[in-house]
Amino acid sequence: MRINLKLLLQTGACCVALAGCESRPPAGQAISEALTAQVLGQTYLDENRFAEAEAEFAKLVRLAPDQPTGYANLGLVYLQQGRYDRAEEQVRQALRIAPEDPDILLILATTHQLAGRANQARDLLEQMVRRPPADLRASYALATLYLTRGDDPSRRRAEGLLEQLVEAAPANIVARLDLVDLLLRHRQPDRATLHLEEVQRQVPEIPREAQRFFDRALLLMRRSDAEGALAPLERFRNFLSGTPFYQTKIRDLWGPAGEQAGVPTVTLSPVSVRLGDPRAVLAGLRFTDVTADVGLTAIPAAVASAALAVGDYDGDGDLDLFTGRGGTGALFTGEAGRFVGRQERSLGDVGAPLSAAFADYDNDGHLDLYVAGARGGALLANLGDGRFRDTAQTAGLRDSLSARRALFLDADHDGDLDLYLATSSGNRLYRNNLDGTFTERSALMGLAGGGSGSRDAAFGDFDDDGDVDLFVVNDDASNALYANLREGRYQDIAGASGVSNEGGSGAVTAGDYDNDGFLDLFVTGLAGGRYALYHNRGDGTFEREARSRTLFQALDGVVGWDATFFDFDNDGFLDLLVVGEASAPGGRGLFLFHNDGTGRFEDRSSLLPPDILSGRRTVVADYGDDGDLDIFLATGDGSVRLLRNDGADASPYLDLRLRGLRTGSGKNNYFGIGAKIELRSGDRYQMRVVTGPVTHFGLGERLKADVVRIRWTNGVYQDLFYPGSDQDLVERPLLKGSCAFLYVWDGTQYRFVTDLMWRSALGMPLGIMAAGGGYGPPGASQEYLRIPGETLQPKDGAYSLQITEELWETAYLDEVKLVAVDHPDSVEIHVDERFVPPAPASLRVYQITRRRPPVSAVDDQGTDLLPMIREKDDRYAAMLRAGRYQGTTQMHDVILDLGEVSGAESTLLLLNGWVFPTDASINVAISQSKHFTTVPPLLQVPDGDGRWQTVLPDLSFPAGKSKTVVADLTGKLRSGDHRVRIRTNMEVYWDQILVAAGGPAGRLRLTTLEPVSANLHYRGFSRTYRKGGRYGPHWFDYDAVSRESPWGPITGAFTRYGQVLPLLRQSDDMYVIMGPGDEATVTFDARGAPELPPGWRRDFLIYTDGWIKDADLNTATGDRVGPLPFHAMSRYPYGSQESYPTDQAHRRYLTDFNTRNVGSRGR
Questions:
Q1: Which of 268, 380, 1032, 1149 could lock 388 by a disulfide, CB 3.0 to 4.6 Å apart?
Q2: What per-residue confidence (pLDDT) applies to 5?
Q3: What percentage of the chain's residues is helix, strand, coil (to nearest 5)?
Q4: Where are the chain's structural domains?
Q5: 1100 to each of 225, 745, 913, 918, how far by Cα in Å?
Q6: Is 850-998 a CATH 1.20.1250 domain?
Q7: CB 718 within 8 Å of CB 660
């Protein structure tokens, strides 16, 4: 870590937000005057005009003596001037009003440090970090302070603080790299490796020149060479430190000045006025036209254009802007509060821009830009260094129709953003293949629109069934509501949902204006068209809202070009901005409506500048990064205006930034576009759909959010408790589907052993096997799996097994048997537990009498793997380089020298390990790409000419967790060269690899035990951990269980609870249907197995017959139990020519057993 002796000066520098919960706000006219004093004082302080700043903050104290704001800001002024006693006096006065406010406490800590009272600064910071939730800036400051001391106790305390910090703020790579450096310097390379791998998963694409240093550092750390890794790590960090992404993370911890050498300048930001009463905030709020102040008057207004896009494309924390500018288009970069025009030659000749959108289409963490012009489209790929390259031609978008609205959304839920264009002659959906190309799929997906003239579109989960839907506004036909049917299909249900009309619509905005958890719609009208506010009933249907009469009266005669829901006063309710033109000359066409909290809207257009009466397109965003939303407005004459929100930052807020993992996942797009965010603060509930990198919530009189719940676009939930005002939330890697679990009684407790029915993949897209469509084989998973004898012990005279369903999937368990395998102690038995497509199982038991590790084992980078694969000890060969997707890696090799194997009747290779699987949506994404295919493990031998020859193309991989692949190498090795190479780009981790010499079959005694009891009941979900560390498989603690489901609902008729023994005795298509949280306790009579002869031991095999269907959004019918599988079906889902058996026995089974109905939501 780079240590700054004046660390606290910058530590408190990020924007402070004072709650002021115990103070009384000023009243009446004083509110407006107080806000003015605050703004002026902050401006003067930023310009180092201390006398003027002091005067304004003193005025603020007089206007609001019961607010801590003025005192705290006066303290900052004195701190800047080196008047530490005066500074402390003012800060302590502020603390008397708000004694626990972290922002003011940071100012006091800074004062102690500058005044030479380091111990007092440390003690104060220690108090701050012990209060939940710990302040990140205080944690970092305290860690840095301890590192200046150099002793071991201080180093350990700093290490603990950094660990806590990266746990609370996982996306802050500055703190994480500090921790990596500290761990390496104290010889902890394994822990350091964990954190460096997380850096790769979370940061935007690593600069090319830095990648080789990252790779070298990671390789050396994995080899436990901590000292050698320090140099390439430092080089990597040097390259990374110049990137805007890194600099923004510095500011999160140190403030705008960053780390400074020598004597730093105090850069603590002024404290904002905080008013506890939303009515007081509204009374003092106004929008100010600051267009000239920020440099946007440089945009010529010669040609009108509605193209407007706002986003931070360079990642420096400042918003940038694209506009149609005079018919050619221009890009403006935000720099220190102003917009600076730049020449963007890569735009090409696409004609006058009609619409534009920033979005990260390639999931590299950088915002790209799409511009729809009159003559085609331009896709400007962000190169990450401030430059763009137009890739529209190679992407297949150059000849796209001129679009009135360009919209990026994940229409097929495969983890990347597709492009939807609303045009005057039908619409286009360009599927993102994530290989640099797009494929037009609107007709195939049901989204073409039949040639209607579309103007606008909005996406969101309108029926709350977990997938994204699309509402499209038409000017010459009825609007359309496209319900997502999944599997890449949509259907217009506007009529059935109550949102159809007669045409004449101009724009749409979606938002939950009444805070009931369901997306509502506001649709504008063109000349002769009707405005409509649609209230979502919560069942997928809408009703017209007529209570806000003033809203519709005000808009009478207004041509509505655009509209947006946004919370302009931070009171926790969505307000409404309508942008248009009045039909009468000189009339108002720009309206601001305030939500009164009951779902009614009142006209507050008087808060807008009086000289701006119309517009064509709007974007709302927090331009000043001060906690309130400002208005960017493209006007009818082609100019762009910025209306700054002055006053809403007096209410608490939450800005949430979602971050999908860039490597090792592929489940969600990088910025989480399309995710659903729910927020609870006290008794206040809010919901938003993520449409950009930052999602804003006003909190009103609530000071903090209590909990935030995210439903990512892959359907997985993630919770965040007590978030800060500016919060990054990084996608949590999670195994959501694959198999049922098996726990057995080991004599003292139930212990997780393995997973079951892994070979079944009902409705699973085939992308993992090859590019193309189609679904996996429909056959049941019929398999024998080994249970070591010492693991399974009798309980009350019976062998007791727990089969659970704990993932987001449905299990259909048809038959279970237990086979006791008795054999001499000198013999070790195995069955082949590799993954193969489902087929009738034949039992082959391998008898091993001699086995040993290979002579050597290395990977393709020369790393010695032998210590990791010699014993079955949960140390895995894990030198894998992450790929884009979960379950995939860069191509890698394990090269084994088996040593002398002659003289044996047969040569076997026993490979024990586990596989981290892809999922259905990842398979869909893989099937679309021309650049990537999955290569399952294959085995090669030298061909004698210096090359490798494949002899086992279907070596395959362990079918789940802790499984053994048995590979027969008899006759496949060249004389004198006993090397083999295992090659794959799948995420396979080997725990133990042994060479076994087979011999003649010895004596075995197999006894099949039938179940004597089977009870189905609800249990819940076991605590999950990684067995053997981060490279080990997900493992489960049976004794630590939660009854709350982390998954969305799966609907349909499940098997009722109670005795289900008749369903498990034979394979007959009458099975136990289990949902998430269910458990079947299955017992076998231990007396059915004969006594063991002396010198013998007993192992077991479990046989299961059944299917698994996961609930991934791209699994066919994964959201419901039906259609029921059966052994004779030729495919799944099957067509009308096939059906589940309808004889009397099966009909009785359905009515007697499958009576536990789980209702639907939204369907």
A1: 380
A2: 23
A3: 20, 35, 45
A4: 654-730, 735-782+797-814+1007-1163, 850-998
A5: 43, 13, 19, 30
A6: no
A7: no
